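ARCHIVE CARD
Drawer: 12
Card no.: 0347
Subject: one protein chain, sequence and derived structure
Cross-reference: see card 0346
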Amino acid sequence: MTRPIGYFVHHQGRGHAERCAAVVNALPENQPVTVFCAKPDIFPDFTRQVEVITLPSLFEATGAEDINDTTSAPDTVHCAPLGWPGIRQAMAQIVTWFANANPVLMISDVSAEVAQLARLCSVPHVKVLQHGQRGDVGHQAAYDGAVGLLCPGAQALAQPDWPERHLVKTHFAGGLGVDVKRPDPAQRAALRARMGIAADQRLVVVMSGGGGTGFASAPFGIAARAMPETTFITIGQMARDWHATEPANLHHHGWVESAPDYLAAADLIVASTGNTTCHQILAAEKPWLAVPEWRYFDEQIEKANALARAGGAHHLPHFPSSADAWRAAIKTAFDTHDPALQRSLVNENAASETADWLCRLVNQLLPKTSNETGDLNDVVHPIRA
């Protein structure tokens, strides 16, 4: 019987779940998979049989906490408060599964604690590698202890401080979990007409993701007033500022089901640098003003820096605060745009190639005398993609 793969999925935002579904759906049908997550409803549809185990949240208090925790966290962990029954229950569920299922591999997307737990329980793990300032011993222990690292981004976006010992076991998968097919130019006019945008009207789409609190609206009131000939449409979560005076060419559409349609219709996009957002914009091949939001470990800041180094976006550390600054920023985004380079940073085959990499990795992990060897792939390949 083929030994299962476990997959832990963090439930902030949807990018982790979208990556998981893409990878799991691409794995062979005969490979059992068990997914652990605190919010199973965030997943897109699985197209194959998958066991999903609901965990208590590892970071949201329930009121049942039973220790007055005044300690500082040790450098080896990031989220390990004392006296949280939910954390104990979640870790117990995972460890019990380790003991009963005898998994061949555990994937962590993302938790340094879950990754280290797998290693402590003698279970090989793959750690998802994200951007950010992650040189602390907690992250480094999770990376060092992994049998492979999975980066949901192109190799051209690797940070210069990522050590060679990690790069040699990293599989890069730009666009993993995101529909990165090239938009059909023939549909652009129809999309704009549906939105009430004339063919010759400049359209700037502001895309605010769901992983945080969203953008404040005031900066875009300034932008719209600075360029009255341009239509500005915001989609996603937008915090309205009481002091903002918004002109008629600024429209808030809120959450939409068809964000890629807005990107395809746009002349320029303003957005933060969350993983799904990044790859949707790169796939649209549009001029992009990238402004990172606050995230733990400066994840979006480092992603924005990587995009700027690669030439995939025009990066600013914060939104322009005056009309002149907005005009200059948008001009630079247009002037430096390179659609071919943006296309090179996404891979339409990211999911299938990741599944192949995992299969090869599993074959290397299984004992050569095991009857299971060859269940996924008859040829043993090196771990590096």
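Annotation on reverse: Residues 272 and 278 are 8 Å apart (CA to CA). The chain has 13 helices and 15 strands.
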